[in-house]
Specification:
Four Helix Bundle (Hemerythrin (Met), subunit A); globular; transmembrane helix; 197 residues; DUF2306_membrane
């Protein structure tokens, strides 16, 4: 399902950015670069989380992981450049922070696996893929008419800015709930508290 949604929104994004007159102007290189580099994480992510690939084909998992890492780093860097050069003032900070968060998550995944910490590597890889999927989530919620989604916000510019922020904050919160917060709450105490005399 994620791959199909990614493909659908990727097609729409290509059509809008590259086939609609007046959308590229001076940023054509960075849009193309971002598109080409961020494509690898979107495609490779589901395969990297396949248990059979990770266990039975470790060499393939590592090779695809390096491509995923490079694509994510370059995709994050190009998203940063696009954020700095963005025309929509209310979206600049959001896109810059998203790109830095994505770069951090993928770098942390690489550092943790280099240190032999498979558990944390997996968690940072999940977070990293969540940041890559912001592309899909933004388009999903962007298909909802903004005047209905943000009926309490009058300014169209403020609606755009809010959409940019929630497009990556909500997925990151959902991921954190699933992999960190809920498991931490469910952990039973190993030691009963003792009364100190």
């Amino acid at each position: 399902m994620i791959i199909l949604l990614s493909a659908f929104y990727l097609f729409r994004g290509i059509r809008f950015r590259f086939l609609t007159e007046g959308n590229l102007e001076t940023k054509v290189f960075w849009y193309v670069f971002h598109f080409l580099t961020a494509l690898a994480p979107l495609i490779l992510g589901p395969f990297q989380f396949s248990k059979s690939l990770r266990i039975k084909n470790v060499k393939i998992h590592r090779f695809l992981g390096k491509i995923y890492l490079l694509g994510s780093l370059l995709g994050g860097i190009s998203a940063f450049v696009l954020g700095v050069r963005l025309d929509l003032e209310g979206s600049i900070v959001s896109l810059i922070l998203l790109s830095l968060t994505w770069i951090f998550m993928v770098a942390a995944a690489w550092i943790t696996i280099r240190n032999g910490n498979i558990k944390d590597h997996r968690l940072f890889a999940i977070r990293s893929y969540g940041m890559a999927l912001v592309f899909v989530f933004l388009r999903l919620i962007g298909d909802i008419p903004q005047e209905k989604l943000f009926f309490f916000i009058e300014s169209p510019e403020m609606r755009d800015s809010t959409l940019e922020w929630i497009s990556w904050i909500i997925p990151l919160l959902v991921i954190e709930f699933a992999i960190s917060w809920i498991p931490a709450i469910k952990v039973k105490r190993k030691f009963k508290s003792r009364v100190i005399d």
